[in-house]
Amino acid sequence: MLGALGVCLSLAAAPGVPPRFVPVRAFTLAWTHSIEKIRWEEDYTVRSGPDGRPVLVPGQARILGSGAGMEPPPDATLRPDGWYVYQPRTGPLDELRLSRSPYTADYDWCAGGRCEPMRGIMPTDGDVTLLRPCRAPREAAGPAAARGAGTGPAASLATHRRRSRPQSPAGAPASGT
Fold first, then answer.
1. Tens digit of each residue's pLDDT (9 = 90 or more) over 18-31
2. Ranges of Low complexity compositional bias (predicted)?
3. Which positions ≥6 away from 81 have C-beta within 8 Å?
């Protein structure tokens, strides 16, 4: 039997730190750009791909305003509340690379109607946190699974979040800045 879908978080520069499984099927990564002070939010879902492997699927993205070098894409719609809303033109992803600097606020992870700083789910070493779609490891498949679904962060694809935010697997900006 296959384990539950979710995301696996690990510290790229600290392979000795065990990865953290978060049983979640839908979440949002959010952050505020460190210089422009503009809020970004990106929705994601975890699904089984055609071959049965988990994939990360980008959903709607939102930017509260715009700033130098942070223009929303041309197909974004400006809502009356000031948010630009758009659908990133990115297919399923195998990984997000989240830059987490000690000099800027952490990502907010939102799931199940709750948001919290990402450090509440996965500590940071001030470097890159890898976020991958995955299935629950055998030891986490029971009721004592790592932090339950609905208690976790939201996610992002862009390279220049805050100053250098999430990156696509190739390191190229995907959505946002």
1. 999 999 999 999 99
2. 139-155
3. none
